[in-house]
Amino acid sequence: MVGWLSILAFGVLGARLVQVQVIDHPTHVARAKAREVARLRSETVLPRIRGRIIDRNGVVLADNVDAYEVAVAFDFMTGEWEEQRARSLERESAGGRAALSKLPARERASLHDQSIAQASMERREILAAIASAAQVSPAEIESRMADLAAGIERRGTAYRDRLAASGRPARERLREEVEAHAVVEGLPAEDTFGLNKLADRFGDVIEVRSAPRRIYPEREARVTLGNEGLPGTLERRASVHVNLTDVGDLIVGSVRDTVQAADLRRRPFEDGDSIDWGGYREATDLIGVRGIERAWEDTLRGEWGLRERVRQPDGSVEQRLVKLPVDGGDVQLTIDVELQRRVQAILSPEYGLTLSQREFHTPNADMPRGLELNAAVVVVEVATGEVLAMASQPGPGLAGTMSELEERARSPWIDRSVDAAYAPGSILKPIVYLSAVAAGEASSDEVITCNGHFFPDRKDLARCWLYRTKYGLATHGPLAPHEALARSCNIYFYELADRLGPAALSQWLGKWGLGQPLHAGLEGWRERSDGMLVRAGESGGSLPTEQRVEAWRADGDRFSGVIMGIGQGELAWSPLQAANALATLARGGTVNDAHVVRGRAIPGHRAGGSIGLSPSSVRNALDGMHEAIDASHGTAHHVTTAAGREEIFALPGVRVWGKTGTAQAGLWRLDVDQDGTADRSVGDADHAWFACLVGDEATDTPRYAIAVIVERAGSGGRAAGPVAAAVARELSKLGYLRPVGERRRAIDPPSHQPESDG
Amino acid sequence: MSGGLFFSARNLRSGDRRLWHWGWLPVGAATVLTIVGWEAIGTTEPGYAQRQLAFIPIALAAAAAIGVLHPRWMDRWAIPLYVASLVLLLFVLMPGVPEALVRPRKGARRWINLVVIDFQPSELAKIGLILVLAQWLRAREDVARLQGLVIPVALASVPFVLILVEPDLGTALTLAPTAAAMLLAAGCRRRHLAIGVVAAALLAPASYPFLKPHQRARVDALLAQVVGDTRYSRDIGFQADRAMTLIGAGGVAGQGEDGAQRLLETNALPEEHNDMIFSSIACRWGLGGSMLVLAACSALCLGAVAVAVSVRDAGGRLVAIGIGSLLATQVIVNIGMNVGLLPITGMTLPFVSYGGTSLVASWIMVGMLWSVASARRADTLRAAFQLQR
Q1: Residue ranges covered by each domain of chain B
Q2: So what's the ipTM on this one?
């Protein structure tokens, strides 16, 4: 029986051997060879330097400072190195493998013991040197290494499980399991000298590599603004000092140093056998999270390099550079950081223009005085479409000073200049006029009579702003285009919108850049809550969809299309889109959408071609906008405050073409006591728009487009106008326009001249 | 019983001894295994092969010395050897023994340092147990009854427990089938033995929760490996995974000396010259090599059984059965763990694995087989000893 049992057992073993050595041979031999390769080769992924971000004048906005990290080989972390080192020392001392095998047993044993002791001493020496550079104990380094190794092994097992589950061949070792990992980071250069020497001796163990930190040198600034642009009620100091901590923050953005799952999904460094040199790895890295840092991540990050170390049969280590790292490309912005900081200062509560003023609102608005309002400004160069400045209030610098509730309510991390959309209000009127003429629905000198209300049988609907009881139900009468624009008559534009119809008007507005992002160079990948990666960073605004327009038509709803003529209804655009539309107008319809990045192709960006405007209509539109500023009946001509009536733009030598606007925003619920519930409502707290073109008087050519929105500020002219004027003044001071010599001049005392609410 | 203690030409002439017998089969098989083992050790670590080479003459001399002795020495020396082995087993476990004498390795106290050689008392205990069981069982008729099993089971249990606490689970476990086979040969009822086997089979899964964590993990890793799951291949199943990969890599033709050396080193197979020597052989010589070893092992074990069948002396037959089953267990467990069918336990492949004590002890067993096979002793077989072929 014993014999039979043995025969049976040997039979089973024989069968198993046939299975393993014949049937499964290809799998096993591949695994064994893969291990051979992995064991003999170790790799180091070489870091590269992230590109800089510079402004239009070469001022560095985002840079890197030298710092170093100390990385140790994975097998050093796991303790395997010591064993290998001992073997190699043993052979070395004996004079090679063959000589070693000829040694008498006792001698060999003693050599073995010596080698183990030597390897162990070397390990302690390496640990001590790293610990001393990092100013921690060797035990701390040991513990970091153990944590790292445990994490990597876990990921390795999970990775192999995943591959096995999906039926793909499991690579024997993760790249992480053959490369060196940082155990000390952020070392200054002078602390790395000793370690560099050690790295020369133990090249297969320790590496000192450059790992720069990201810095933003221009983020903090103290800006001094003159008081010459301030309305009388605010005029109180010789100059205003504003401390900023977030200059260009929303544009430039920031980085994080941890790689997230979404990064690895989007661009894995290694996917099966292919390598994306610009991809993401589970390692220390800088990754853009907002603004340009995010939008131009792929340009800024550059490409990893790779160095390979091959252990030779004699135990020596040969190094080979597989690929040089490629540093990230610099990204030049169109932003002028000097102008940017001044514009941000203009929007700051310290300057006062973005604080609520009771008199800016209609009398029935119960607006508390001195509330900090949200606002945004965009300045675009007409000729090039380049954005010179783009500011949003509140900015990230104020985030730290806010309560959680306030932060939620005011969203300081949203760039309102580009990533928020508002109803355009009356600043859309020049665009509507030009579109109607271009579409052939009106002549460029079309005269339309304002009789107060658009629908003959409805005096309460689609009225002109003047047709109010407080103004004695006045009307504008017959108006030429420039007059209609200067006086911001609603009826004129209701008529044009009606002639065009909502579908055609929407199509025309699309040509002006509404309804989709301008692709100004600020869009980047963002992970949605459902895990999907989407492009984010620029708002496209909105236009009524074809279905909506069709529904209006089916319902016999003419009103919804008509009010689009004055920028109300289902329309929205961002301040960037507003400034862009004005710049397009100033170029006579030539398309070159606003953008913030210079010298690089931006996917989707429109440049070239024309909307197809008639030159006479462009002239009329500019005349009307200039009249709005220049003529005392113009809606953008003056503001009336308790201090009297003051011109909005009093900039000698500077020519301004402007348009005020008010975007209906409805009731504003305020949480004054910050308890999380609204305790006060303000009626008619509309968003104030001001859009203008500025140029020097001598050439009579618009050179810069400025769009301003102050949320809940009420009247466009009164609240947003002074902001635009202050911005124009700073443009002028910086030499973009003729210098301003004189102070704002006080003009006539208040009169009964009514002011537009549009 | 007649004639002297030693085998001589006179013995042959007198008919006390015979020249041609089944004892040669284990000798041939052991020779093949020893040569293959020595060459294979050279593949892994040339230095070790040299040491092993030094032990081969010692082992052969010991085997020859035992072989020329008449088997009656076994009757005389059974108890002293058994007792001596127990004393030595206790010695390695005793606290306070200087480390120069007993140096724990990987947490186990199994070796006594005799300067030129590290001696494992458990190797002696195997022989001691076989001899003492043969001595006891040859004269007993009560093995067929349950109470008759008490003494033999107790005799086997003492070294079993002592080896288990060293700890050396592998060696301890080889004692059980050895004792069982001897009991069976001595006339123990199959159903009595079946009780033990069933109890062990039931106890084995029940003991799982009481296993040490590393032992439990090894069982998990084994189960995973048998079904092709490589989850444990980097940690607890590392050794088993590497062994099987290397065996598989050998394929039919083998990787040759250089190829095998490189693969062995880069795949970092632990115990490549020792417990895992079979993997090294399979890797270097391929299926031919592994089948040769398997065939030689079969010849060795079946040779022992053939010796048992061929002799008419109850003690000799029991010794042959004991040795055959001991070697068979070792071979099956060792190759089984190499090919991933059994969990990793510290178990050498007799004659092949590196290690002086193991080699000498294995050859002594071959000598014992030769001695038993060559002797013409009086027919001492009882009815119970009529092997059920």
Answers
A1: 33-377
A2: 0.86
